[in-house]
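Query structure, 459 tokens:
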């Protein structure tokens, strides 16, 4: 009976929140704040999205459609009253933008890699070259998870690597702490892997979209350069911490002697599409090609050559795409109504840039622990990019928040990889919390210290 009541209760809470958001601009105390009607309505939409994203009373992608509907029906007339030229296309455009195409291309690459079993081949190769030495095996697993998660879904990578590693840990003593360490390394390194490329995780796409909208162009290769030190440091610390907390002792792992079958046509075609797309993303900017335009190649080639079919197209994670688009649309409203400047004026001591970095990074780390990192980025980045700051400072702030979203992994529910690994039964809440807290603290420290120093040097 409770299972029936809870969904209805959630819908009631969501409806009440929606109603309160509509009434928000009409509260006399709120009206006396000095904000115009468009800004009040934007705040109402922002608060509504934040509550629904945190509570998950409705599916996250539905929140994006709620944002879009309110912006077109409710907010747009208030914007017109300010004599600002704006049309519905302003809010529709994020739902099929360059960034959405880029991410869609990434999802298609992930699908063809999985169907051709190239991801499993790569994981098998990593395990073979480590030859069962525990420290090297752990390093190989972390490196493999990070590399795959840079290009493929970190959720799918976690599931695939768990399938490869779970039989392996049966060779270890049941009370061996290294069993836990091996499994724990998979979700945490997959979470970190998303940092490395613009398609690695949705917050990266949200960040790039807003930066592009502000005239700050960050290419695929530049993103890798900006994030690589952050990724390497967190990976090395994770490897060292797991070995210390979950030592292998005298355990030895025996690798399978089975051999993979030779490449077939599907594998060669998939490898060609993957390599060609990766090269295109790395150098396409030099030829005036946007990353989203290049992403059309794997989409067209995969379905043209029959590597994917209509069933695969329907199975793409459209909810994530719409979730990202909704966050971008929210940022459009904040920008066009100049709400960002209002928020900036409310921040204490915002003239101190370091304080601003610390404030926003810590806020992002907290929110990323209790809600999805995509929702966290969708909530904070639109506010950040609307601030009247120099270009370099704006880019540093966005990078710090975005990368910190990927290190917020304290709870099993914090990220899908955490939830999948927790479901294996090998690791517990304390295990995830212990290492996840370390990664979270490390992410905060890097984002407010080494990160800005390095980024200002590179920019």
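Result returned for the query:
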């Amino acid at each position: 009976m409770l299972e029936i009541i809870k969904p209805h209760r959630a819908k009631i809470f969501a409806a009440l929140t929606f109603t309160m958001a509509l009434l928000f601009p009409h509260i006399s105390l709120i009206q006396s704040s000095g904000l115009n009607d468009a800004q009040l309505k934007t705040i109402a939409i922002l608060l509504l999205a934040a509550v629904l994203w945190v509570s998950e009373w409705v599916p996250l992608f539905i929140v994006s459609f709620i944002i879009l509907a309110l912006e077109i029906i409710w907010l747009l007339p208030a914007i017109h009253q300010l004599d600002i030229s704006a049309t519905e296309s302003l809010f529709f455009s994020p739902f099929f933008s360059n960034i959405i195409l880029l991410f869609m291309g990434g999802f298609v690459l992930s699908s063809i890699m999985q169907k051709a079993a190239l991801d499993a081949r790569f994981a098998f190769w990593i395990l073979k070259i480590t030859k069962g030495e525990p420290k090297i095996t752990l390093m190989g697993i972390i490196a493999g998870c990070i590399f795959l998660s840079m290009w493929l879904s970190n959720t799918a990578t976690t599931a695939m690597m768990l399938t490869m590693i779970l039989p392996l840990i049966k060779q270890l003593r049941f009370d061996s702490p290294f069993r836990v360490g091996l499994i724990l390394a998979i979700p945490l390194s997959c979470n970190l892997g998303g940092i490395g490329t613009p398609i690695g995780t949705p917050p990266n796409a949200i960040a790039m979209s807003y930066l592009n909208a502000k005239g700050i162009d960050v290419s695929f290769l530049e993103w890798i350069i900006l994030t690589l030190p952050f990724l390497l440091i967190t990976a090395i610390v994770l490897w060292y911490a797991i070995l210390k907390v979950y030592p292998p002792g005298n355990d030895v792992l025996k690798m399978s002697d089975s051999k993979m079958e030779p490449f077939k046509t599907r594998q060669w075609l998939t490898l060609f599409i993957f390599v060609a797309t990766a090269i295109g993303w790395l150098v396409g900017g030099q030829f005036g090609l946007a990353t989203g335009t290049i992403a059309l190649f794997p989409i067209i080639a995969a379905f043209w050559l029959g590597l994917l079919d209509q069933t695969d197209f329907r199975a793409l994670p459209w909810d994530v795409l719409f979730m990202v688009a909704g966050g971008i649309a929210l940022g459009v409203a904040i920008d066009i109504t100049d709400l960002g400047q209002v928020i900036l004026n409310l921040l204490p001591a915002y003239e101190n840039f370091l304080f601003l970095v610390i404030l926003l990074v810590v806020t992002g780390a907290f929110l990323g622990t209790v809600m999805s990192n995509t929702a966290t980025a969708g909530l904070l980045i639109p506010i950040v990019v609307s601030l009247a700051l120099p270009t370099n400072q704006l880019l540093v702030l966005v990078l710090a928040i975005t990368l910190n979203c990927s290190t917020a992994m304290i709870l099993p529910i914090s990220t899908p990889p955490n939830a999948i690994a927790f479901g294996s039964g090998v690791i517990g809440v304390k295990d995830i919390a212990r290492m996840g807290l370390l990664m979270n603290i490390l992410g905060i420290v890097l984002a407010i210290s080494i990160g800005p120093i390095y980024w200002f040097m590179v920019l």
